[in-house]
Amino acid sequence: MNFPIQKTDAQWQALLDSKNAEPGALQITRRAATERPFTGKYQTHWADGSYHCICCGAALFDAASKFDAGCGWPSFSQAIAEAITEITDHSHGMVRVETVCSRCGAHLGHVFEDGPAPTGLRYCMNSASLDFAPSTS
Q: What is the pTM of this model?
């Protein structure tokens, strides 16, 4: 799948280093790895603002859609329109829906149909894939 923003692994790594990204961010965002549950910096983060792709800066989620799913990863009930591309994932002997950034293809996590109303969705994200922008109001 092609995305508007393309870089080499070395360019992605340099970008992530410049942002002081979490260890393993390259493996998570570019190789679809998963951080261990309850270890990410945004798992218990509840400030007002928005969550963006660590790789390209695209806005992905408003903090108002974040909820505690008890799963060990930051969870959101709704993504910003057209920010995320969904891909069927057959890895690990399961069928899941992988979520990637629509601009750069960074692996973010997975979306499940066990979230709260009104969407019924749980976007289960890796903290290492996210960057937070606090609300300015």
A: 0.94
